[in-house]
Each structure stands twice: as structure tokens, then as C-alpha cells.
Amino acid sequence: MPVRPLEPLLAEKARVELGEDVNRIEEHIRTVKLWIAEQPHLIARTDDQWLVAFLRGCKYNINKVKKKMELFYNIRSTSPDVYCVKYNEPKIYSLLEMGICLIMPKTKIESADPRVVVYRIGQFQTSKYHMLEFLAVLLLQFQHVPKESLPVEYGDYWKIKMREYHSWFEEDTKYVVDESKRVKNASLKSCFKQINEID
């Protein structure tokens, strides 16, 4: 899957603030893919668009990308409560309909301004749902589904999107960390390397 091109204003923002060089994006993505391929314990998504999100989030610092990816997939494996609501559960649609989190529409067709998000926590029904369930739904929305254009009331919009991306979510459930396959003594080798560098 090719990387979606940014709008001109966002592209300039990425260049200035993130150090993004459009001529080297593919090179950076290849570097991350090679690293993932060398990690037997890391069962990670390798879509170009997914990886460039990590690169941008770390300002193209490859070492930070590695640490962030390790942490991201480790949380999935060691803290299942954070992902307690699965994409195909009926309750996810009920949570979306509550309208607790509203993403405001863009004020301009082409703009580099941040999107305004309104949280209406008072709408959350604590008698029916646990707060972790609400947070799990937010993780599904904000990490995985494109948000180029959203209405203010978007319960129906998200329900449609969840169905459209069914295969994406189904595939995404398999990406985790398998500690049984992690290279033994990897952290120990790292320590020795640091000691040698000091010497």
C-alpha cells in the first residue's frame, strides 16, 4: 500500500517540524521493514502507511521508532485490558452512538491546523460500561481509521467505517509480541556493548 501524499501545507509542516524528506520516505520504510524482519518475536504490521505513521511520530529517528513499536506491541500482549473491546463486538456500536468524543470538521479544505476534538465525558454511562471499554474504542478509531473528513455527529459514520474496515481489523488482531521467540540475552548483549563503549 503506497503512502498517501500529504496536502501541500501539511507536507511543508512535516518537512519543517519532522524533518521529512519525500525523496527518502521509501528508504526509511525499507529500513524499518528490514529491522522488523530481523525480530523473530515481533509480529508487526508492515503496511507502508502504518510504518510512516511511526516514522513521523518519532521525527524519523529510527531508534525511537524501534522502541515505540516494541512498546506498542508489548502493550497488546501484556495489557489486554487496554484492548478489551474487539472491533466486531456489538457493544462497540453502542459506545459510538453515545457521542462522547466528537471530532470537529475541518475549518478549511486545505489546512495544516490541528483538528479540534470535543470530549463529552458526562455522556458516558458508567452503569453500563467500564471506562476502559471507552478508551479501547478510542484506540480503534484514532489509530486505525483515516479521518480526512468527519461530521460533528459521527456515530453513524464510524459504524459504517468499522464495517468497511472489517478485514483490516480482523488482520490486525494477529499483530503482537511473542516472547517465546525473542532472542535470548538480547538485553545483556546491549549492556556489554554500552560498557565497551565507555571503556
UniProtKB/TrEMBL annotation:
Entries under InterPro entries matching the protein: CRAL/TRIO_N_dom, CRAL/TRIO_N_dom_sf
Protein name: CRAL/TRIO N-terminal domain-containing protein
GO cellular component: membrane
Domain CRAL/TRIO N-terminal: 47-72
SUPFAM superfamilies per record: CRAL/TRIO N-terminal domain
One MF annotation (Gene Ontology) recorded for this entry: phosphatidylinositol bisphosphate binding
Native species: Leptidea sinapis
Gene3D superfamilies: N-terminal domain of phosphatidylinositol transfer protein sec14p
Coiled coil: none
